[in-house]
Amino acid sequence: MLNEAMIFNVAGLLQEGIGATREYDLDGAIQGEDGVSEAVSGDVELLCTQAGVLVRAHLRLVEPETCSRCAAPLTETVKIEFEEEFIATFDAAGHPISGPRDDDAFLIDSRHTLDLTEAVRQYREASREMAPLCRPDCKGLCANCGADLNVGDHACDAETVDNRWAALAALKGNN
Which residues pair with 115 in a beta bridge? Predict the structure, then answer.
């Protein structure tokens, strides 16, 4: 999905030469793998380099998550900071630039547009909380009945033994 807030035309910046800069406030969204839109805000600095444009980004993503212990919905704010060089593929006159190129490099296209969407997505994945929690002291769900242990008193039979362990429980009772 195209996100206009994360696309920058850098033709003028590239024509100004090495050391030229631009600063932008970013306020947009990125679509997650599950199709849910996640708000992105922050600031971006673009610096013209010999090979293209160095992007310095200081961003905040607000994304819906699920608590890893109790499965309650929550909102997580992820801070993303990165510096990435986007490589120019065409010169200011529109001629292709040849030479060795890293296959994993971020590129500036033939219309001199730089799209931050993929870089933000990659850094978001790397910065994402492995096991998000609704609160630090979340008790999770009961292993027997699945009740939310954060809600209050819990009245299920906690001594119920998983039938896969019944033989071991019987041995314990014989000692």
Answer: 7
Phi and psi torsions of 109, nearest 5°:
-80, -175
Q: How far is CA 140 from the centre of its chain?
A: 25
Residue 140 amino acid letter: G
Q: Where are the alpha helices (DSSP H) in the chain?
A: 11-16, 117-127, 166-174
Other CB atoms closer than 10 Å to residue 142's CB: what's the count? 14
78-108: b or e for each residue (b if 16 or more CB lie within 10 Å)? Answer: bebebebbbbbbbeeeeeeeeeeeeeeebbb
Q: Mean per-residue pLDDT for 127-151?
A: 89
Q: What is the DSSP letter of 40?
A: E
pLDDT tens by residue, 74-91: 999 999 999 999 999 887
With vertex at residue 78, the alpha carbon angle to CA 135 and CA 26, rounded to the nearest 5 degrees, is 145
